[in-house]
Amino acid sequence: xxxFPRIFLNRHEEEEIRHGFPWVYDNEIAFIKxxxxxxxxxxxxSECTVPDGSAVEVYTKGGMLLGTGIVNKKSKIAIRLLCAxxxxxxxxxxxxxxxPRAAAFFRKLIEDAYAARFLYFAKSDSYRLIFAEADLxxxxxxxxxxxxxxxIYIVVQFLSLSCEVFxxxxxxxxxxxxxxxxxxxxxxxxxxxxxxxxxxxxxIWGSRDELLVIKENGIYLEVDIAHGQKTGxxxxxxxxxxxxxxxxxxxxxLDTFSHTGSFGLHAVHGGAKQVIAADISxxxxxxxxxxxERNKAGRLMSAVCADVFELLRTYExxxxxxxxxxxxxxxxxxxxxxxxxxxxxYKEINLRAMKxxxxxxxxxxxxxxxFFDAEHxxxxxxxxxxxxxxxxxFLEKRGAGPDHPVLSGYERSxxxxxxxxxxx
Length: 424
Description:
By secondary structure, the chain is α/β, with parallel strands linked by helices. The protein has helices at 15-18, 100-117, 161-164, 167-178, 238-247, 262-269, 282-294, 308-318, 339-356, 374-388, and strands at residues 6-9, 23-25, 29-36, 39-43, 55-59, 65-71, 77-83, 127-131, 140-146, 152-158, 182-187, 200-206, 211-216, 219-224, 252-256, 274-279, 301-305, 322-327, 357-367, 392-398, 417-423.
């Protein structure tokens, strides 16, 4: 019999997991069997004394093994699965998880992810190296930045207890596989509180250069890994920005929610005749201006600090017109409870943008919220077009780049929607 605690699910709760879903919710658990001072016991999950951060095996109600994961009673996601095999394939005992086999397991996952990125990226590129569950390391994010000198920096996020437990193994594997100049942590996110973890950030190892300049699709961009949003830059839009480059020639372009100005700078690179970048953050606008100067784009591109909702209404009232508009807002909802409110926000900006575009103009519209799924997103665009009294042609329906793979059975990994439209 297994030395490890065994979780048994309620009847018919295993179907998603069998198809690849990597989480077990607390309300899906029927009971747990484990050994304590009284010997082998069977208890409800809420009453068990198994410490958070322990390895457990997950079984169906009928006793079929589903896999091994890390337990966390503080979280609604009670178990995040690491593999589909028994726990003793990774760990030597039920108490010591830090085994050579565990270290080798995580190193192999990082090596596999690193090799997969080279299908699409060069050594001089910046990209997401580890995309959490989609790269089979639940809760762990690692972004790889290559600066102008060719030096590699890794920015990591530990978003769950399941990866926090293996902090040292993951950091060592990153060092061994990537040979970075420095590793910086950006686990300063509220989601950690749902896991019973405190927020933390700062240098973990190596050189301390917090302001990097990277090159993406021929564009030089400043990245603040210590203070910028997420890990400093939104790497998932690289290939969508290249699409903007290919469509921008001769157009007057409005780049909204601009952040670093990257979409707008790609438009300049593609031959746009004028680009206006807008963001509500003065810090972001200052960075956009530095990136404009860095790319010698000042003759064609400018930045304004403005609330995009208000700016679109102001431009409409003033009779402004554009040939191309990019809408890349932050997630308007981070839970399923607020999708109706998010719908209104997404519809508002898209409707206004459609009214501002000349006939035949290009609208690139994005949503990065998983909870605002493709059905909601494309339905919203159709309704916005109807209210704006415009027709739209979908030229492309895109998503995140290949450094953000979509894991079968885990729909949350397919979060980014990017619609390229012609507005008639």
